[in-house]
Amino acid sequence: MLLSASPLDDPATRRAYLEAALAAWDSEALLEAVVYAHRLFGWRETVTVAVTRNLVYWLREQGYLWPRLPQNALLRFWQLCTEERPPLSPRPIRKNSSQYAWWRGLRRFWDTLRWGGVELPRLEMPPKPRYALIRPYFSDAEFARLVEGARSHPEGRLRRLGVAVLYLLGEAGVWPRELFALRLEDFQPAARVLRVRGEKARSVPLSKEATEALKAYLEDRESVAGLAPLPSPYLLLRMTPKKGGLGRPLNRDTLKGLLERALEMGGLEHPRPTGALRWRAVRRYLQQGLSPQEVARRTGVASVLSLKD
């Protein structure tokens, strides 16, 4: 929800407000603008807030005046953050994913100033870190072995649940927390579409195989849901009475057990199977010829590079 009676509401006052904040290196005023812009455009604000706080502090400590900044100011700040440490943090930004998030946060801060109508100095921006497609992912052959492993589960209901979950994670690109929030009406078998709820709400087209896997699971779900005193609205339910969980919504522990069993039955090992399944979905979409922007939209990933990058 946007703040009421804010100078950021009106383009006529927004620029003056931001220019005054930059002239004084007022981090609180600039953070207010960052949060406002992120909520307005639906950006994720957490890392941008940290970047803004560190950058403004560093620029003030260097004695720089806005807008008379050295052309390499952002490069120097980036070098400090990645080779030593951010000025307000005890540790350097070393992980590839963290560097990408900070680079993106730096761009978002600049985007916020541009949105505010501020005239920006011509500064060199650090090069974009490239990490997305070197993430570990399951190959098509490994995914097929996982699906066969799930189909080999000794309990029939868990076979169909496991296969459905694998297709949602490894083909549709649904995240675990999104998986747990799915409602029965979110699956539209006739249209072969899944509606994903949450922070990155979206509609995802399903393959024929994924649709058939979900339809097969729904037959088991109907019998299990009928045992509960009140019908559950959630799409994915626990299929065994272990710890009184029969008919209750799928949770992280159940998902972990399903994936561990599928890995075991498929003769595979992986320390982070949910991440590998997600990046398998990303690569699959790219191989189908979708643009990186569309792939990011379908999977909820912050940003995606093309396979040629």
Radius of gyration: 24 Å
User: Might you state the CATH topology name of the largest domain?
Assistant: hpI Integrase, Chain A
The geometry reads as elongated
- Beta strand %: under 5%
Largest sheet: 3 strands, antiparallel
Q: What class do helices, strands and sheet pairing give? A: mainly alpha
> Uncertain spans, ≥5 residues at pLDDT below 50?
none
Order of helices and strands: HHHHHHHHEEEHHHH
Mean pLDDT: 90
Question: Can you tell me the CATH architecture of the largest domain?
Answer: Orthogonal Bundle
Count of alpha/pi helices: 12
CATH superfamily of the largest domain: Intergrase catalytic core
Oligomer kind: single chain
Helix content: 40-55%
GO biological process, one term: DNA integration
Keywords: DNA recombination, Plasmid
GO molecular function: DNA binding
Domain Tyr recombinase: 132-309
Could you outline the blueprint of secondary structure elements for this entry?
Elements: H1 11-23, H2 27-41, H3 46-61, H4 73-84, H5 96-115, H6 140-151, H7 156-170, H8 176-181, E1 187-188, E2 193-196, E3 202-205, H9 208-225, H10 252-266, H11 273-287, H12 292-299
Antiparallel strand pairs: 1-2, 2-3
Short recap of the structure:
This protein has 309 residues and is mainly alpha-helical.
